[in-house]
């Protein structure tokens, strides 16, 4: 971010409190403005604050002068962007307010390195998003704030009130949210089209999940701290141990995950939801089996780094119960009587079209719309328990996106298709498994890219 005054005192023309893409070692980014010119811009942004501090009476100006001093002191330089001591203190205020950690000098000293590391990564993410032309819209921010409210137990629309009552700097809270959104968009732009999940990969996971039915599943949150360089091993382990200590002393897991975790689950406060056996690294699965609900693990070393797990609950994966399944259906009616009656020849033509061209419910719905026949198209979701007779047997025997043979009805004929099937206690769909594998692959590429950005960047830590 550019060096800027506290947003509560900055002049209207001061530089925005946001990171700007610059050129680092080995990068092909557009060249940054000359350093002398940037220094003049940064000094210009500080002049209103200095003038204000000089104009205030000694007592009234003491707090403002302390803030000015913190803004002037540089905590780190990331490429050509500056992180001030004020930025570090403001982010620490936010973390303390949201996590429930004690606001003591000792606690602040213990988490300062973690906060600064998070700010450095955040700056790199903002720089990369700007380099790729990924802007964050007001709608993006509004949706992200709604998620923050849900994850932190803040009433809907209560984010601004939380900021005001907690006394934290609004700018630092908004910057963190903006960086998360910008990074997601940057990673999607870079890697989405490069990831392909094969049917074979999906089948392997599905087979593993089938083998785990009836075994324990866990309600889990995680914090993931990568080890990018073997030389960082001890430092990352120490940071992980410090986080575990803070959580066991009463700090909130979700705010710490959102602040420090390098996993996609960080945006959801570290929540992984219910995890079945076979979905996690075997080292993590064994750790979960050894834990009691309501406890937090010690740091767990895996190939990529250290994990901290919080086990909220445990249950047995239920055996699928097809009788209580819910089916999402579409249908195509072919009336033989009434004002919309179709001739026998037309009905046969439609059956041929369905057999030869209809592969999904979308195809069937499009054909129904084209025919403009009443009672055709999406039906909605129907519990199997409410079906009886031949229709129940037909629908329970169909696979997803499989059309039935024509069914005779009092008014003509009917073709039905099962669009999706939700079976309590059952397996996730192949599409859900494919999406999870995609997200895991995207996560791996994102962490690798952030590591590359760190290696190429010019980072000068001064505190």
TrEMBL record:
Composition-biased stretches (Low complexity): 12-21
PROSITE patterns linked: PPIC_PPIASE_1, PPIC_PPIASE_2
Pfam families in alphabetical order: Rotamase (PF00639), SurA_N (PF09312)
GO MF annotations in UniProt: peptidyl-prolyl cis-trans isomerase activity
Keyword Chaperone found: yes
Keywords assigned by UniProt, alphabetized: Chaperone, Isomerase, Periplasm, Rotamase, Signal
Every PpiC domain range: 215-313
Region (Disordered): 1-37
InterPro entries in the cross-refs: OMP_Chaperone_SurA (IPR050280), PPIase_dom_sf (IPR046357), PPIase_PpiC (IPR000297), PPIase_PpiC_CS (IPR023058), SurA_N (IPR015391), Trigger_fact/SurA_dom_sf (IPR027304)
Protein name in UniProt: Parvulin-like PPIase
Top-level taxonomy: Bacteria, Pseudomonadati, Pseudomonadota, Alphaproteobacteria, Rhodospirillales
